[in-house]
Design goal:
With about 100 residues, the protein is an alpha+beta fold. The protein has a single domain, classed as 2-Layer Sandwich (60s Ribosomal Protein L30, Chain: A). Strands 1-4-2-3 form a four-stranded mixed sheet, sandwiched between helices. Strand 2, helix 3 and strand 3 form a beta-alpha-beta unit. Helix 1 packs antiparallel against helix 5.
Length: about 100
């Protein structure tokens, strides 16, 4: 629980710093531009969308994590619901991966 809260707080900081893309279209654009360094999906994302983005992340060699539900992810980044996020800054992506492993 404490780990998830820290991750969500870090995602909020990433959004405020302009280092985050939220939503399927923004994330797809981030991936196409090779800006995405870490892909984050909600735990309740649809199987079809999960498979699509897992495949894209494999092709682009981008790590993919599942953190919290769509409502919690949305709240963390100032939206109602978000199923997918792209972290576009290296140090933040590394810190999020580190916290996720802990």
């Amino acid at each position: 629980m404490k780990q998830e809260r820290a991750l969500l707080n870090l995602l909020g900081i990433a959004r405020k710093a302009g280092c985050l893309s939220a939503g399927t279209e923004a994330v797809r654009s981030s991936l196409k531009k090779n800006e995405c360094l870490l892909l984050i999906m909600s735990t309740d994302i649809s199987d079809r969308v999960r498979k699509d983005y897992e495949e894209i992340s494999r092709r682009k060699n981008v790590d993919c994590l599942e953190i919290a539900g769509r409502v919690e992810l949305g709240r963390a980044v100032g939206k109602q619901q978000v199923t997918i996020l792209s972290v576009n800054e290296a140090r933040l992506a590394a810190r999020i991966k580190e916290l996720h492993r802990a």
